[in-house]
Amino acid sequence: MSCGFEMNDIEPTPVARSTTAALLHAMPAILLILGYLWLAAIGLAWVLSQTLFGGALWALVVCLLVFCGAALLITIRFVPRALAAERYPD
């Protein structure tokens, strides 16, 4: 005897996680990806100042300002997206 629908016809609605739970779930990925990003930005600034400008302090400061500014912008844009991806899994 059929009641008109099958059990597989009902799709479960995804439940949004709280912001705290999403942050806890996304924290390892955020730390890993952004840790490598900041390491690359600082390393690239040091390498450029050493090779192109002979290790001048002003060149290191300028390179750090440029690359760390870009890394900060990427960080600001990445964290809310990572939280949204963990909060709403679909």
Q: How would you describe this protein?
A:
This protein is mainly alpha-helical and 90 residues long. Helices cover 72% and strands 0% of the residues. It is rod-shaped and about 75 Å long. The two termini are 34 Å apart.
Summary of the model, kept short:
With 90 residues, the protein is mainly alpha-helical. Helix content is 72%, strand content 0%.
What is the secondary structure topology, with strand pairs?
Elements: H1 19-52, H2 57-87
Described by strand count, sense and barrel closure, the largest sheet is: none
Report Rg: 23 Å
% residues in beta strands? under 5%
Could you tell me how far the N terminus lies from the C terminus, measured between alpha carbons in angstroms? 34 Å
- As residue ranges, the low-confidence spans are none
Provide key terms for this protein.
90 residues, mainly alpha, rod-shaped
